Amino acid sequence: MEKITIREVSLDDASRLLEIYNYYVDETAITYEIEDPTLEDFSNRISNTLKKYPYLVAEYEGKIIGYVYASTFVDRAAYDHCATLSIYLDKDYHGLGAGRALYEAIEERLLKMGVVNLYACIAYTKEEDEYLTNNSMRFHEHMGYKLCGTFNECGRKFGRCYDMIYMEKLIR
Length: 172
Hints:
- This protein has 172 residues and is α+β, with helices and mostly antiparallel strands.
- The protein has one domain (5-170): Aminopeptidase.
- 28% of the residues lie in helices and 34% in strands.
- It has helices at residues 14-27, 39-50, 98-112, 135-142, and strands at residues 5-8, 55-60, 63-72, 82-89, 117-124, 146-157, 160-170.
- Strands 1-2-3-4-5-7-6 form a seven-stranded mixed sheet, with helices on both faces.
- The longest helix is centred in the middle third of the chain and has 15 residues, at 98-112.
- It is globular.
- The model has no long low-confidence stretch (mean pLDDT 97).
């Protein structure tokens, strides 16, 4: 069995990452984005992230199957030791360990940068449906994250209201 490899993102990866992401935009409530970003917009997002934070991809059998990146938690100097993580895996490649591998790799890089508080902003539902399960919450719990806040019915997608939760992990 092939092993998952983790590497730094390249702007040449943008098209594949956008393909992974657009599934979540179009078919799920995992992201509250409603319209697919353009390739130019998505490439700019990657470039802007790389100015301050790591952005990593996971490959399996030579194919990009997921990615993770860090972003600013709150844009104030007192929060510079904090970051928010976002992770997306190709819908056909769950269960291979790519999520864990990506999170372990980015946590290591962030810790070296002095980032010790990690946050995840997660779509959550009181009743799972065809657009949203709570697998992301369960993944984060498995990775050592704890619930630290709930925003009730703040996201509206597919004619339904969903919650958003924040989870945190201290890595120092």
